[in-house]
Design the sequence.
């Protein structure tokens, strides 16, 4: 029978780092709280937990991030797709065309959501399989925070 040694203190630190990220903390602050030497180490620790396990905390983090993406998309949506303003006096509608900057922002938000939920997951040969959910990358790399 084979035995696998698990360093529980490392696992607990990884889990705590992930919990703090869910709570909205920055990686640098997480590193200081949990005792990692750098923001990068804190990110890598949390990422290792995500790579090694499927846990309820991962699902919770996805849901929190999804709510944040909803709020961001809601903030840009009308200007991204255009809208109609109704003149109160005449009742006539004035169409406002989409703003390409807002449209680009909406597309970036949608792309992030697809990545979060694995909607554009790659397989080993590089093809995309819509709808396949992978647990790989939940939080932004340290250099993007």
Sequence:
């Amino acid at each position: 029978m084979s035995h696998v040694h698990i360093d529980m203190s490392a696992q607990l630190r990884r889990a705590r780092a992930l919990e703090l990220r869910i709570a909205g903390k920055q990686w640098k602050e997480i590193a200081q709280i949990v005792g990692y030497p750098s923001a990068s180490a804190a990110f890598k620790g949390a990422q290792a937990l995500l790579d090694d396990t499927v846990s309820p905390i991962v699902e919770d983090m996805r849901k929190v991030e999804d709510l944040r993406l909803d709020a961001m998309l809601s903030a840009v949506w009308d200007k991204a797709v255009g809208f109609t303003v109704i003149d109160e006096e005449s009742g006539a509608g004035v169409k406002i065309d989409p703003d390409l900057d807002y449209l680009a922002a909406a597309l970036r938000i949608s792309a992030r959501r697809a990545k979060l939920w694995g909607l554009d997951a790659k397989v080993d040969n590089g093809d995309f399989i819509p709808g396949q959910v992978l647990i790989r990358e939940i939080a932004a790399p340290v250099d993007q925070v």
